[in-house]
Amino acid sequence: QVQLEESGGGLVQAGGSLRLSCAASGIIFRITRAGWYRQVPGKQRELVAAITTGGVTNYADSVKGRFTISRDNAKNTVYLQMNILKPEDTAVYYCKLDYASGKLYEYWGQGTQVTVSS
After folding, report:
1. In Å, how far are 41, 42, 46, 102 from 62, measured between CA atoms?
2. How far is CA 76 from CA 3, 13, 31, 73, in A?
3. Distance (Å, whole) CA 31 – CA 87
4. Beta bridge partners of 84
5. What is the pLDDT of residues 63-80, one digit of tens each?
6. Tell me, what's the pLDDT at 5?
7. Quick one: pLDDT band at residue 25, thresholds 50, 70, 90?
8. In sequence order, what DSSP letters do the residues of 24-82 get, joined into one string?
9. DSSP state of 14
10. Which of 1, 35, 83, 93 has its CA 20 to 30 A from that of 116?
11. Residue 90: what are its φ and ψ, rounded to 5°?
């Protein structure tokens, strides 16, 4: 059974930093693409950052230069370092892993709340 356990969310003042972690089990982590998404009430979930199996990254324009996604295959964990946080970064953050093997398999974490106060 695949499980994704997120941690690191919380309340921080604008300009501060947080690091989110997503630890995976029950899956061959190194073959997965990983991504962080966020969602606020009433809006669609949006991609924040993603990283391929080879370490290629991409970011939403709104977080470029402030957020960094990384992965540690030895620890089956993907991270999101968030710096210079803004109130508009407030959301529930979700990690997702996916891989293709005949079909696309996707797995989501339970979400972690990030609140940035002004």
Report:
1. 18, 19, 11, 34
2. 11, 30, 11, 5
3. 34
4. none
5. 999 999 999 999 999 999
6. 95
7. very high
8. EESS-GGG-EEEEEEE-TTS--EEEEEE-TT--EEE-GGGTTTEEEEEETTTTEEEEEE
9. T
10. 35
11. -60, 125
Instruction: Over range 6-13, report the average pLDDT.
Output: 97
CA gap 31, 20 in Å, rounded: 21
User: Length of the chain, please?
Assistant: 118
Give me the amino acid identity at 2: V
d(C-alpha 58, C-alpha 43), whole Å: 22
Locus of tokens 């391929």: 52
